[in-house]
């Protein structure tokens, strides 16, 4: 099942469902990175002893990355939290 079938016309984080379907057709990444390329950082973080004491939170291409100003916005974090809760059927959002 692709994202468009799963969410229909739900507006996720300001993106129309058709845009999500296009991303799903590309493997889910707007910049076209393959799942293998994305997984490389996950495997690196899980196995590299050099990151064990790191205080970094965000990583990309096996390197720490400063989050964007948008990613640090509390109002957008709250909106994403509510959306996630609604889609998962948990919390206050599920009752709405």
Q: Which of globular, elongated, flat, extended, rod-shaped describes the shape?
A: extended
Low-confidence stretches: none
Mean pLDDT: 76
Mind telling me the C-alpha Rg? 16 Å
The H-and-E topology, N to C, reads as HHHEEHH
The class by helix and strand makeup works out as: mainly alpha
Number of helices: 5
CA distance, first residue to last residue: 26 Å
Proportion of helical residues: 40-55%
Trace the largest sheet across and list its strands.
Answer: 1-2
The total tally of domains equals 3
What does this structure look like?
- The chain has 96 residues and is mostly helical.
- The chain folds into three domains: 1-32, no CATH class; 34-65, no CATH class; 69-96.
- Helices cover 49% and strands 4% of the residues.
- It has five helices and two strands.
- The protein has helices at 3-7, 17-25, 35-47, 74-88, 91-95; strands spanning 59-60, 63-64.
- The protein has a two-stranded antiparallel sheet with strand order 1-2.
- The chain is extended.
Reconstruct the topology from this structure.
Elements: H1 3-7, H2 17-25, H3 35-47, E1 59-60, E2 63-64, H4 74-88, H5 91-95
Antiparallel strand pairs: 1-2
Compact summary:
It contains five helices and two strands, in the order αααββαα. The chain has helices at residues 3-7, 17-25, 35-47, 74-88, 91-95, and strands spanning 59-60, 63-64. The longest helix is centred in the C-terminal third of the chain and has 15 residues, at 74-88.
């Amino acid at each position: 099942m692709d994202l468009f079938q799963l969410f229909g016309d739900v507006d996720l984080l300001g993106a129309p469902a058709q845009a999500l379907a296009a991303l799903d057709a590309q493997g889910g990444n707007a910049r076209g990175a393959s799942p293998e390329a994305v997984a490389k950082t996950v495997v690196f973080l899980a196995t590299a002893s050099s990151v064990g004491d790191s205080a970094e939170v965000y990583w990309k291409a096996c390197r720490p990355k400063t989050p964007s100003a948008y990613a640090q916005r509390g109002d957008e974090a709250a909106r994403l939290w509510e959306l996630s809760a609604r889609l998962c059927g948990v919390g206050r959002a599920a009752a709405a």
